[in-house]
Amino acid sequence: MYNPFVSAPSSKNATEFDPGRPVGSFLEVLRGLFFAPKRFFVEFSAEGPLREPILFVLLVSAVSAVVRLALVAVFGVSFGDLDAGDMGASALQALLYVAFSPVLVGLFAAVYLLSLRTFMGNTGDYRQVYRLISYVYGALILLPLPVVNAFAFTYAMLVLVAVGVRYVYRASFLTALLTALVGYVPAALLFLTLTVYVTGLVFGR
């Protein structure tokens, strides 16, 4: 059986999404990201296939999109301004978000690879960084939640990336922090710009 982990001592590792048991594996990865990020990235292998990370990204986006649509419907009913047209536009926006989420992760990966190369020379490659960012992306499942969403992006793209670089690439604390911070700013601007653009495109605003 193919083992995607070069350094892992066991073929079963909670740091890799397993499509064979999607729910259990999905929850294990999220639990590691939120409650034991250091252990998660100590056990994480940058080498491996892209299929599992991409499926994980799609699942995170799908769950996030469903939660967002549910909240739109609940708030719309509660305040008496639920409009079929807006609901349809929200559904289209959610569909686009899910469909293009692997591309968004790819753009993030390019940004962080440039930052990684800036501070650590030729360390890492695009495939490795894509895998890392794909799992970091799991924290964005909180984006639909009011208040919490303000911290979700920063936790994912700054805190988790710093922890990931620190333990996956054996970087010093300062190097890991600088790598994450330098990549975080353009990643945040990219995400904000795309969100505003897609929202305006879908809702015609």
Automatic annotation (TrEMBL):
Highest taxon of the source? Bacteria
Q: Where is it predominantly found? A: membrane
What is the protein name given in its UniProt record?
Answer: Yip1 domain-containing protein
Taking every annotated instance into account, which residue ranges of this chain make up the domain Yip1?
32-191
Can you cite an annotated GO cellular component? membrane
Q: Provide the alphabetized UniProt keywords.
A: Membrane, Transmembrane, Transmembrane helix
Membrane topology label:
Multi-pass membrane protein
Keyword Transmembrane helix appears in the UniProt entry? yes
Q: Record's InterPro entries?
A: Yip1_dom
Specify whether Transmembrane is a keyword of the entry. Answer: yes
- Its transmembrane ranges are 54-75, 95-116, 128-145, 151-169, 181-203
Q: State its location(s).
A: Membrane
